[in-house]
Design brief:
Order of helices and strands: HHHHHHHHHHHHH
Radius of gyration: 20 Å
CATH superfamily: MFS general substrate transporter like domains
Number of helices: 13
CATH architecture: Up-down Bundle
Strand content: under 5%
Structural class: mainly alpha
CATH topology: Growth Hormone, Chain: A
Largest sheet: none
Number of domains: 1
Shape: globular
Helix content: over 70%
Mean pLDDT: 85
Distance between the termini: 22 Å
Low-confidence stretches: none
Amino acid sequence: MSTNFLGVLNDNYLKTLACFIAVGWVGVEYEETLVSLAAGSLVLPYVFLSPLAGRWAVTLKKIRVVRIAKAAEIPIMIVASAGFLLHNVWLVMFSILFMGIQSSLFSPSKYGLIRDIGGKEHIAYGTGNMEMVSFLGMILGTMMASFFALTVPAWGLALLFLIIATGGLICSWFLRAEETPPEENRETVRPVSYLLTSIRKANTYKGLNSVILALSVFWFIAAMIQMTLLVYCRRSLGMNDFQTGLVLTSAAVGTGAGCFISGIIAKIWDRKVFVPLCGTGITLLFLSVFFFPVKGIWFALLFFVTGLLCGLYKVPFDAEIIRKVPGRNLGHMLAYSNQMSFIFILAASAVFALITNHLATETVFLFLGSLMGVTTLFVIFSKYLWNKNQE
């Protein structure tokens, strides 16, 4: 959890700093393009490298994969530091791309360790806590970037990059897990072939493709909301960088809390009931932003509640993937889930740019509310989404 937290912290600290600082190097007219490029650079590697990441999670010790990835984070942060020190937007963008590559290659191994550490009986609890610390990393990374962007010199920003990366490497050496033995894997690493093969393979686990589709749509919505808030808060609501960071933080705090609560109540509440309820709530909150003028503290509070519902909604899908797939096959299916989710996230960057270039920014809320409503209906009427045996 500590290793995961520090990695997510550095990802979001770097990406948000780029959106707040680098836009001043290229001009406000390129703001949407820079936000989309930064988001796309973190997710594009998941589309192309998830097949390789899945192979590593099957054929190698997962702890070893995590440690190698954390060691690679230090030179990546040196590149990022050089970018901020030299005011070079291309070095910063390349460092974000390299972080995306690093994150994509060890993600299946990282999440595959949840079951190896806690056992089957703690899948939901472990998944909820992993997602909670992920969102805590997003919270702190966003807050640090929004506060430090105007108050800390470039050398201070660079030093913090390296401290966080070194801390993540140290934490990875304390990992302990009872892993199943590595297995031979002959799956293709070509992205398109891998995706098609994985879809067919997932069909052997009843309802798995439906779970992954619902989770992918969730990540599409989450990615668009993050990009929208970065632009909408400053342009439409007149907020400064720090105030915008507080709104993003409130949403992330809510999501982290929702993830934690979801992991706890997994044994108490029927997922077939509370997941659709959360989806309905998210739909109504998105639509309310479009149809009613919500500003200031009420806007931040609305997105705290939205985040809370998102956390409750998301964790059952993550846990269901781990629950449905036995043994080392889990690494393959987690990589497939990553690839699908990040295809959707990449599409979100394109759709965000398309909508904001032709329509008012608040139109995104109408679009996302409608999409969440359709997805909730899919969750309600999908017959094989959840395993019959509750954890």
